Amino acid sequence: MSKVTVGFKETKEVVDFVIDLSDGIVSTMQDDEVTLSDIPNFFPAVFSLLPAIQGIDQVVLEFKLATPEEAEELKAHLRERVDLEDDDMEKFIEDAFAVVLDIWNVVKTYFLKDEGNGEPTSNGEVTADASPDQPKT
After folding, report:
1. How far apart are CA 71 and CA 29, in angstroms?
2. Which one of 1, 18, 62, 73 is CB 3.0 to 4.6 Å from 127, fit for a cystine?
């Protein structure tokens, strides 16, 4: 089985949608009133929704195949996208996300070593079935 490199393209698109939606909600709630003039606050979320849902079924596979370098890239993407007025909350969200990715990497490295299913093999390569949603036979 050959090595598969997936990256975090689909995951980044989901993260982008969640951030765009959150930004729209925060902008709308600044005056404690929801009006038609708040509609433009949600345009970025509307435009990022389709890319986010088109590949959402690949997010689990991306996490299964993620390398530590790709996880660092995803952390950097989140740091770049999150911009809150409350710097402490922004740092907390970024750090919490980083911790979750680090925990996932530890679990994947030490506890999930099922060859052929997106996990590290004895030689350190990561492999995956061409169709990971297919049941095992």
Report:
1. 33
2. 1
